[in-house]
Batch of 2 targets.
Target 1
Amino acid sequence: MVREAVDRLYREEWGRILATLIRLVGDFDVAEEAAQEAFTLAVEEWAARGVPHNPRAWIVQTARHKAIDRLRRRARFADKAAQLAAEADDASHDDAGEGAVDGGVRDERLRLIFTCCHPALAVEAQVALTLRTLCGLTTEEIARAFLVPATTMAQRLVRAKGKIRAAAIPYRVPAQADWPDRLDAVMAVVYLVFNEGYAAAQGDSLVRRELCAEAIRLQRIIRALLPSPLVEVDGLLALMLLTDARRDARADAGGDLVLLAEQDRSKWDGAAIAEGLELVRTALGRGLPGPYALQAAIAALHAEATRAEETDWPQIVALYGALWSQHRSPVIALNRAVAVAMVSGPEVGLQLVDVLGEVLDGYHLFHATRADLLRQLDRRAEAGEAYRSALARAENEAERRFISRRLAEVGSPAGSAPRSSDRRPPE
Amino acid sequence: MQYMLLIYDNEKQSNSMTPGDSKKLMEEYYAFTEDVKKSGHLVAGDALQRTETATTVRVRDGKRLTTDGPFAETKEQLAGYYLVEAKDLDEAIAIAARIPSVRKGSIEVRPIQKFD
């Protein structure tokens, strides 16, 4: 009972509690250790005396006292500790108190988000710090999700927190004028977390699933904390919801990849789709869409088609065109070419794909896409060749199995000996 | 907090500037320096002479080794510095972003180490 209450509080309120504590004690590490201690203490105390009326306030108060104790033990923080102790005695207007104004507390998490995603920190440090402080994932969990040793992840976090302290990265919400840039950095971190979770099949699948959920949760918080709605903020939330909605249909019982066109659409998460579609609609009505809103709009068109054949491909081609005009990435061009193939046939699509060969040669999906178009054109030998190129570059096990299956379908044309350049053993 | 703002610039490029451009840059630097002086941020600041005037010294096994030129061959060279007082990194970055050379070269922002 008590254990559950503590666990739930940890899951739901860790970020908020830590955000308050960091402001109160002015140090990430002290705040984190004190919060951890308070949660441990809660299990015993609450079992003996019952769960307090306001559990979050209890944790914050307890952690704050623990933090003061800690700081007292460090001579050079003596002044800070004295100041904190004085404030703690006069805690009647404390954010963590019973009558806390929600708005005030919310701002603290926003402050934490902006600090964790400060551009002066390396991107991977931003991601790690966000997951640790805002989402309450343990260092081991983050390490597992990103396939690095726990010690590496621990060092990354220590270094990031060290830089926040040493270089005095401020713990505050940036000035409104800096918001566009800073929000871009925040959303890049959120989307990175999501994609890491969605890329699937490698690493611990449970943790990875959790990453997607955390990214969506974070984006919801950011959205709720903003003073006024923003197209791209809605766009990113919609994009993640619509993508994640397809999760259960994306792999078959054996864990093999199922392409969008072949997915059992009844397995899609209807509630997530409904929410995503509504978000896309309001976002597009609000102003000029950026890359997130445009990608969300594309995902929305897929979601709206009850059968793959009903997909509005001409509209998707147009959206990829808009995306390309904002960001001239060859991967966007590749996706557009696929959409063009659906409208104008594989021949036209293949012409567009072939142009990208030089820049995308190292990208397995380029070769897989080419192979697929060649297969549709019944140019089997070339398709087989392209599937082999894709296989040589793919790392994800599920994707490798998928490509191998396709390769088997087009069959090895008679008389073609295995090339000496194929370093991978046959499967 | 004090921050050292290290100005890195491509020396070859600055050497090949027209006298007019050079004069304009000097004026910009003068205006910037006046500005940070007035705002109370400036602690110190100087331009450095070119790297061809640099000498690098090492002492190894008690023996002094003196070589001509800067410590490392890099695309951009240390050209000057400002030492500023700022309340946090964001303020220091905002100041650094106003240094005229930021548009062609780059500014490294380093907090000053305090020993207590």
Note: Residues 29 and 158 of chain A are 9 Å apart (CA to CA).
Target 2
Amino acid sequence: MSPKLKKTRVLPGFQLSLGYTIFYLSLLVLIPLSMLFFKTATMGFPDFWEAVSSPRTLAAYRVSFSAAFIAAGINVVFGFLVAWVLARYSFPGKKIIDAFVDFPFALPTAVAGIALTTIYAPNGWVGQYLEKFGIQGAYSFLGIVIALTFIGLPFIVRTVQPVLEDLDPEIEEAAACLGANQLQSFMKVIFPILLPPLLTGFTLAFARAIGEYGSVIFIAGNMPMKTEIAPLLIMTKLEQYDIAGATAIASVMLIFSFALLAGTNFLQWLSSKRIGME
Amino acid sequence: MSIEVKNISKTFGNFKALDNISLKVETGELVALLGPSGSGKTTLLRIIAGLEQAEEGQVLFSGQDAREKKTKDRNVGFVFQHYALFRHMTVFDNIAFGLRVKPRPERPSADQIKKKVFELLKLIQLEWVANRYPWQLSGGQRQRIALARALAVEPRVLLLDEPFGSLDAQVRKELRQWLRKFHDDLHITSLFVTHDQEEALEVADRVVVMNKGKIEQIGTPDQVYHNPANAFVLNFLGNVNLFHLRVEDGKAYVGDTAIEVPGFKAENAKTASLYVRPHQFEISRQPKNKSFLKATVKFINPAGSMVKLDLVTEVGSSVQAEITQEEFGALRISRGDPVFVGLKNITYSEYEI
């Protein structure tokens, strides 16, 4: 290409910033992750298979993924309600409630775990009433779900809220003029537009919940086969100097999470393509 | 179906948006609500559609009170300034929306819906966009889709809120003429809001001029332009020059020049106001009679069907005049030249300010 035809860009420094981005990502993400697989590769396949498919490991996967999925699902419903209230109505104290939503982001997860345990323990504020109905709050699968729901709330609210605020009220008025009742205008007009941000929020909350450690270990009770999460199992293996075993479990989790994220991203791409937002 | 509003009032906080408005739109009429922004015209339209509630007064459709009826039951077609199309639906689904949300017993079959949608697409000459999304279309196309969507449910009344407000000048003109022709074919009772006087005068059967929540005048385009009810209507419908006249011995003076205005009666006033449209001036190199004013040419804009001149008279007031290209060619004037300004085709009327 002759120098005359060289493209000029309005924003300078593309090559430098791209180089920096790749270097930075390699240092922080790619190299550590590849070490995970290298370390796993040092053990033979039979050992690997035993580590990742023992009943205790399988139970831990099940607990981690199902609790994260349920928690993200709960957040989709109730986080959506919070976002709706914050975007649609104005009332005194709205700013304060808006700030509270970010609390789970800022609070050290261990603090959150201890606080939730105190409240949901059989003698705690909420736990004692749950006890009367025969429901165990803390030290159970429910406890894990509670902790993960707490952690995931801001992801849904913060992804749905801006889209909801941008939504033109005229489209609802247009639907009403065309004879649609309120349910019809919500289901056919508003909800399809909110589906992509809901999926994004779900993905983020789910991904965060799978990896959550700090808050869960306090409230879970950590009984093997019942309330032991996969990250805790990895910690246990590390404490026993079974580093290869720990990385084996970690790599399986990584592959699972990656597949799930790819799946939800694909769904999100499909739904936003229809709206013409990319 | 006719639309009638009776004694409608509406306030937003301390702001009186509508103040005791009464208006009747006859069946099959195309009426323009014309006024500056903040005059309450859009609020009135929204009250008729049921999107806004009036504090006082009634809205009647064919003589029946619509107070108890919600928007969805009023059967009005509403076209929004920013189209308000459903962006996640194709053009086809947008137009079919109103038919698909009908209660099951009234809902047409899929085949009937398809037939109806293509009829409407044919009417707006956009059959080829049925499977596109609104964001793939131009503003003018989107507004026509919005109109087709509103017409799909066969509304008894069509309400248009600044329908051409966010379009290019060229597209605006095209759509304006298209709307007029379209209305002549369908004869659906229509009320449209605009702040563009040219648009209102060109399209509407009757024009309602509004200002500060009140109706200033209702009339045909000819009536409101040539016989404005007051100074506001006169000012709002096109440019106008204001002369402050001094009255002495029954004669009107601008500076020291006595001018003759047909219809002017001195009575006992000391001063009077004279409103002159830009085309009511005669410009010449030499004074044709004693009532011509001396002036200087400040600016000439010859681009257009009329040549626009900015003049400053000897008393220091600025005057905007329009002359034909032929007159301009004969005058051979340029910037800074002295000229004389006279009045033509004018009759004096007194307006309250």
Note: Chain B touches chain A at residues 49, 51, 70-78, 80, 82, 84-88, 97-98, 101-102, 133, 135-136, 146, 149-150, 152-153 (CB under 8 Å).
